[in-house]
Write a structure and sequence with these properties.
single chain, 453 residues, alpha+beta, Rna Polymerase Sigma Factor, Chain: A, Immunoglobulin-like, eight-stranded antiparallel beta barrel, 19 strands
Length: 453
């Protein structure tokens, strides 16, 4: 029997970036994770997906685990959220599987590694798997490199994964993931999965699976090709990723230091200003004015080790202008600890040319006779509406499509007008069918019809 102190030692080592220690932790608790996920999802494929996503999310966020004694309960909470998300989003009824038995997961074959796993694939799939998992090329990059369509690459990856699952059915797919994890230089997942974890808005404050869906299906993000900017005193910073749609902006900043910054819990750019090529202000955190129809929600730490931190800066807004370029400037970087704030004074100004998909983006707008609905659109990343009301706290909102499918809506405050006690909210739903002629918003017991413009 494994001692508690041995598990805590593994957790400490995993928090310090030791992948093998993290893998050992997962092996210890994998049966419990499997049992729980199967009890919730009742479907083998969904269970494996939920557990793999949990392993990934826990790996990326283990620095946030405060007490090493509670690693198991901490990762189980992550699994609960993942199972709930998959259960809510499931639109197809699936066959119930037989009750889980211990024979489903066996020992780890000592010879099982990445090369062994892909040995069963044909040469074409092997090459794609190596480029995708080992070399971390994107589907688009592999398409160009092998002169094959992106759909073909995706299809080959999907078929290859299914063949691996079928061939190793006596071995948990969790173990396959762990073999990939300790074999490669970084966690062995596609860049799409990594980006999905970065832009997981559920933990920010509003659930927008439409964005996650667009990231996975349409590569709806941009990996920024730029060098680090020297800040002096051993510090440097750059932008890693950007995501934009009509009402959301997400930017991932990568901050690095020559000396250890492990005592800091996060960074922030308090006077971050973003404009486009026409000098239209997209975000000006240093000069926010009351009642403007825009809100910058904040910063979320997404990755950290002793010498670098990656932070997601996110914003919801009434409308983001079509832009080909983002001009980014700031004069201050704030580093936080639990007890203090440290400031780096600088003078940074640079620009990023945006991907064509961002400035050629399309959306479908809808009109309503109800004065509460100020705006309603459907984009590739989801359904969005701007609602004004004086009594919103107790209301529950749902979206109905033409086939009467129900989509749960989530909302965040955009602005308030105190003299009238009117509040403005952005409403979000995981719905991206731009061909729908009619939609309905159900607010409390009231149905509001939305007609395609």
């Amino acid at each position: 029997m494994i001692k508690i102190e041995d598990i805590e030692k593994l957790v400490v080592e995993a928090k310090n970036g030791n992948k093998e220690s993290y893998s050992k932790l997962i092996v210890i608790i994998q049966k419990d994770l499997y049992k729980f996920a199967m009890s919730r999802l009742k479907n083998e494929d969904n269970v494996q997906d939920a557990i793999q996503n949990t392993i990934l999310n826990a790996y990326l966020n283990i620095e946030n685990l405060r007490n090493t004694k509670y690693f198991k309960s901490w990762i189980t909470k992550i699994l609960i959220n993942e199972c709930n998300r998959m259960y809510r989003d499931s639109k197809k009824s699936e066959k119930l599987l037989e009750k889980y038995s211990n024979s489903t997961i066996e020992y780890i074959p000592k010879t099982l590694d990445f090369d062994n796993i892909i040995e069963i694939l044909d040469e074409n799939k092997k090459k794609i798997f190596e480029l995708f998992y080992k070399d971390e090329f994107t589907v688009k990059e592999i398409s160009k490199k092998l002169n094959m369509s992106e759909n073909t690459i995706k299809s080959e990856l999907s078929r290859g994964r299914q063949k691996i699952r079928n061939s190793f059915k006596k071995v948990s797919v969790i173990i396959i993931l762990l073999c990939l994890l300790v074999t490669t230089s970084v966690i062995a997942i596609s860049i799409i999965s990594y980006i999905k974890s970065l832009f997981n808005i559920t933990s920010i404050g509003a659930k927008n699976d439409g964005v996650l869906m667009a990231i996975e299906n349409f590569d709806w993000y941009q990996q920024v090709d730029m060098s680090y900017i020297d800040l002096g005193n051993g510090y440097k910073i750059k932008v890693d990723y950007i995501l934009i749609d009509e009402m959301n902006l997400y930017i991932v900043f990568d901050f690095q230091s020559e000396e250890s910054i492990s005592k800091f819990s996060n960074i922030s750019l308090p006077d971050l200003k973003i404009t486009n090529e026409t000098n239209t202000i997209i975000c000006d955190r240093g000069n926010l004015v009351p009642n403007q129809s825009q809100i910058t929600l904040g910063d979320k730490l997404i990755e950290k080790d002793s010498n670098h931190m990656k932070t997601l800066i996110y914003m919801y807004t009434y409308n983001l202008p079509i832009s080909t370029t983002l001009n980014i400037s700031f004069s201050e970087i704030t580093l936080y600890t639990r007890k203090s704030i440290n400031t780096i004074n600088t003078n940074i100004n640079f620009k990023i040319d945006l991907s064509e998909k961002f400035f050629n983006r399309n959306y479908t707008s809808y009109s309503s006779n109800d004065s509460k609905v100020k705006k309603a659109i459907v984009t590739e990343t989801g359904f969005y509406a701007i609602i004004e009301t004086d009594n919103f706290e107790t209301l529950k909102i749902k979206l109905l499509d033409e086939d009467k499918n129900i989509y749960q809506c989530y909302f965040n405050t955009l602005s308030s007008y105190n003299e009238y006690n009117i509040f403005q909210y952005i409403v979000i739903a995981n719905f991206n069918n731009t061909e729908s002629e009619k939609l309905k918003l159900i607010i409390a017991n009231e149905e509001i019809e939305l007609i395609k413009d």
